[in-house]
## 1
Amino acid sequence: MSMHASRRQLLQSVGALGLLSLLGRGEAKGFRAMPWKNWSGAQSCLPAARVAPASEEQLAQFLRAATGAVRPVGSGHSFSALVPTDGSVLSLGNLRGMITHDAKTLQSEWWAGTPMSQMGAPLKQAGLALPNMADIDYQTLAGAIATSTHGTGPRFGSYSDQVVGLRLLTANGDSIDCSAQQHPEIFDAARCSLGALGVITRVRLQNRRAFKLHRREWVQRFEELLEDMPRLLREHQHFEMNVLLHADTAVAMTMDETKDARVIPKEPGGDVDKVALLQRVHLEWKNSPRIYAGMINFLVKHAVSFPEVIDDSYKVFANVRDVRFNEMEYEVPAEAGPACLREIMAKVRKNKVDSFFPIEYRYVKRDSSMLSMFQGRDTCAISFHQFYRMDYHNVFAQIEPIFWKYDGRPHWGKLHTLNARLLAPLYPHWKDFLAVRESLDPQGKFLNAHLRSVLGVA
């Protein structure tokens, strides 16, 4: 298409490709695509194009034609700068839904642009379910895999660990189907790839039979919970706690499979009332630590209810998060979790850290993906949040060095300050991943500034 193509010709070309915008920056003089922002608003860019192919064939055609950088985007729920580019932002929003399922193998194949929130009901209809799910289900399947998004439970891995096969479209539009038996090295890299290898279009998952969960929540001193952690992890399939800053209490939660015929659905709504309560106390009493702690301990025990839930698993795992925030999460060895949390809470008290969101504390089973945060070790995941209208830089800077002391690996989708020099020693298969990336995308079509920094690619 020439620089002097008419508006009608441009629109006809776009329609023929089934894309949301033009293929590149120079297609129309003065043209700019719509700005992109992530969920929290902390990451943004003004790409040359925003595209959404309607098929794998159109995607392959686009990749062959694209001359600038291409960054895949899902729901925009990553907090790190994985997406921002001045090239093309590529959505798989038109490639969604279940492709097939197998009652014998308990496997299902999905288009990679499927939101996790749209997977539970079709799987239930097929008699299947995901073995575990994350705390939220806003992410697309491809995005959740790219960052090894996870739930909680020491016997359960991340979404990446549930993948048994996938299709990858490379920088030149070639299609590679891979699994543990077919292109196994690419498979081990692609299950957690940060979108740096190509575009995943199809994902085959290992499921299980559909099941129900019973969720219970209660308030307890977090030190007591840490002391009782071995029993809690042994007796419950899923455990997590949200530790309240500037206090000594936590909201603990267990989820266990049940044959109970009852259905006790979740109460409607999200976190807005609870977060507003924490925010009011923080603004009023943040300079009076003893009163602050007493208020939080009292309110969480007497002013907030935590009813039990019994329902289909996919309705229990995920929660509505209707208050935006920014997040830093590190994965430390499972045995180091309690010590790391204690040190973080001591720092919060000592420095009167200006934040009021609870710390999320979870466990995840080891896996074998090259760049998964859980590669080779059982893990404790500790997440620190900041309300989206409050600056996170100073707060996270006070907490992040504590994670480094405990050999922490940052969650790829969350905020951190590490570059390739500091990340490489944390991953035994770091060089193997870089070799796969170089073989699939030698020109760096799928890289942006953030990925060049964390992967060490010039």
## 2
Amino acid sequence: MRRSMTPWFRKFVYGTTTPLASIFGSGFLVIVAVLADSVGPYALPAMAGICFVAYGVGAIIRFNIRYAEPVLEAGKATGITSLFERIADIALVPAYVISVTLYIRILASYGLGFLGNNTEYNQRALTTGIILFILFIGITKGLRVLEGLERWALITTMAIIALMIVAFFVHDMGVLYNGGLILPDITDQSLWQIVTVLGGSLIVVQGFETTRYLGDEFDAPTRIAASRNAQIVSTIVYILLVGLATPIMYVLSDDVADNALMDLAMAVAVWLPLPLVIAAIFSQFSAATADTIGASGNMLEFTGHKIPVRLTYLIICGFAILLTWSAETFEILTLASRAFAFYYFMQCLVAFSVATTNKQRGVFLLAAAGLLFITIFAVPVG
């Protein structure tokens, strides 16, 4: 029995690595800053709401793995289903390009912030340099040589997040025991501002959809279970992290920085920012590399492999550099959220087109409407 279970367990763990690494690569470093600035003391219920929405969208992705993929692969899908799926695949390319820029900007922000030199120009210059490095590796060796980094980045990130959660818990319990617990001030933003800002932070829980494109490596049941469990694990971690960070948010200034989590870490323990920066470097570089590969793969697919792989890397990195010098971190975060919201919107339409009951169709249309709202109206924090 043990021998028969080992291959399955190994396959399940490897299948879960990709979505989990993508989710944590997407936003644990910036979510505290977004919530502190937009909802203050209500950060925990806001985070729970974001995770709830993400889980619902993940359920639709898993529905498509189970029901849409078989008809698409067998060539039995209707014309409208195939069209929706093709638009979704194309939409992933700009979403990935924006994400690459976001990840490297966050990496630069934390690295420079730790060194005390985090100016806007320095952040953009360092981001450009790292993107050019990724391009150099892609053109000379191919980015596949860096794929093994993802698993190690996830292990490192999870270990450091666990360390932060423990440190925040010990700090909060000590403050609570001494009767000095302070919650951040209530923000004066309207409900519309809060909803549109939170919609613009959807990227922080993005990543569960990666299992949709691992069909060559894992069967459908494995990918469905991996996606679901990655979302459950990430939800638990996000809830713990945000909940324990909320009583420390009062130390942040009114103009919250994109690397505000480092300020909280410093308030808890002087040694804590260093492992946090290490997590930022590993997770963001790994996520940027993975999304460059993903964007390249999608670009090759919808062009029928008529362009060289190296050219796709050049296009992706070129647009990423252009975006680096055109927008600030929170603006890029919102652009990424809107881009992925549109992709999820199209996946809702795919699910709607293969649904067999009116109840399913109603749920998918409702989800599509919410995601279309985010695509159109999401705004950056600040």
